[in-house]
Amino acid sequence: MRHGPYLALIWLRLLWMAIGEEPPLLALLPPDDFAGSDSSSLLLSLHIKKTDGLCEQMLARGSVLPAEVTKLFTTTQDNQASARLELYAGERPFCEGNRFLGMLELAPLPMPSYRSFVQLEVTLLVDSGAIVCRAAEVESRALGEPFCEAEWRGEIGLGGPPPACSPYSEVTLFSHALTKHLPVLLPTRSVRLGGRDVIIRQHQRREQERIGTGGVLWEAAIVLADFVGRNGEQLAWAGKKVLELGAGTGLVAIALAHAGASVTATDGNLRVLQGAEANLQAAQPFAGSVALEVFDWNSAEDLAKIQRLGPWDAIVGSDLVYPGNAGKKCVDSNALSPPADQTLIELLEALRNDQTQMILALKDRTGELERFNATLLRHGFSSRRAVPDSIMPEFRDIPQVAVLHLEKTTWRVSNLCLAIAGCLWLFVESIPKSKCNYARCFTQISRCERVSFITLILILIERLRLRLPYVDACEAVAST
């Protein structure tokens, strides 16, 4: 008797097939325990057709109804005039093998002044009797301007032959993690932070405007802005004084201000700050506040100004180290300066205190992460990578993008441990004590302020392996 409802569904399906009709996509299914009220569930998954006929699943088979889902899509052609959204039901990866339900078309789409894709928000609402599909162009809507929108309503189980393919009206799923060229192609970017769409305007003619990389929204900034809000409870931003190095488009400062922080966003390029200010104005109101300051990393006067504005509870930044000499085009004074890695670490040392949190988001393009971590160790810092669950889901499987928590090594403790370890090693190896001057050894080791703890250990072990006198080993370590 427990399987009676399922047998009834099977007989019902056979009856529909016998009379030459397709069964509806939904049916009332009993709960797992066959108790309580009935719930309506999807019998087939629902999809939106993407480029090349692939299906983007909106709702999975078995979803409890009523259900609602929203996803962000994008056009696929430069200056695309319209976007067609076709809805299918089935379990096959290509829409051609699934059942066509209906479609809607967004037209005319806005025509930006620069080559561009357009972001589209698609919402699907399903209950036991009908499907509603709504779509809207995101940018104009968020800016409060007239925007293109459309709606399709259909009964479940009804459909017809699919329309002819139109490559000039296709859409695909938008992902911040899969937009290598989109920072240049999009005059604006829409980023969802804490349930709000934040529209970031970008500077497109970067060389002519001397904006450099700061005028574009990059993946690391998106990840850091999301990280700020996603981990707001643990990081407790409300009321904190936060310094942002490299304001860029202003997205990270917006996220921090929404979380209640008092932010000072800095950049060495005045035009970048002007662009960030426009984005900040459009994103208000904030729970916190944002102030913008010009900060040329190579200017002692600017450094003193930022120090006076402190002390800082946190220092944050994204994409602050670059492949090769890419960063030298951001600010004129970079042309004759050391690599950004070294300059950045020296700035952190000058601006931090023992209570300052330091959080950076970096993208590894040509070995930047490994190089930066090595530079951190040489300067007495350590880094801890944020766990995947704490960052934006789109980037959790992309190891090239990392959020790093930086800490300054406590050298007093490290040197003491090293001295004790060295003495124990000498005892175990039975090196004649006449060759050891422990006080001198400890003095030599404690002077090694800019050598990593691991480096000291490795050099000391190598010297001991060769049975060199302990004092000579320490002198060799100190000389490094």
What is the structure about, briefly put?
With 480 residues, the protein is α+β, with helices and mostly antiparallel strands. The chain has helices at residues 4-18, 138-142, 182-185, 206-209, 219-230, 232-235, 251-258, 270-283, 300-309, 340-351, 368-378, 411-429, 438-446, 453-465, 470-479, and strands at residues 26-29, 39-42, 46-49, 55-59, 64-65, 67-75, 83-89, 99-106, 119-126, 130-137, 149-155, 171-173, 188-193, 196-201, 241-245, 262-267, 289-294, 314-318, 357-363, 381-385, 401-408.
Tell me what you see in this structure.
This protein is α+β, with helices and mostly antiparallel strands and about 475 residues long. It folds into three domains: about 150 residues, Substrate Binding Domain Of DNAk, Chain A, domain 1 (Sandwich); about 230 residues, Rossmann fold, CATH 3.40.50; about 70 residues, no CATH class. It is built from 15 helices and 21 strands. The protein has a seven-stranded mixed beta sheet, sandwiched between helices. Strands 11-10-9-6-12 form a five-stranded antiparallel beta sheet. A four-stranded antiparallel beta sheet has the order 4-3-7-8, with no helix packed on it. Helix 12 runs antiparallel to helix 13 and helix 13 packs parallel to helix 15. About 35% of the residues are buried. The C terminus is likely disordered. It holds the Pfam family Methyltransf_16. Keywords: ATP-binding, Nucleotide-binding, Signal. InterPro entries: HSP70_peptide-bd_sf (IPR029047), Hsp_70_fam (IPR013126), Methyltransf_16 (IPR019410), SAM-dependent_MTases_sf (IPR029063). One of its GO terms (molecular function) is ATP-dependent protein folding chaperone.
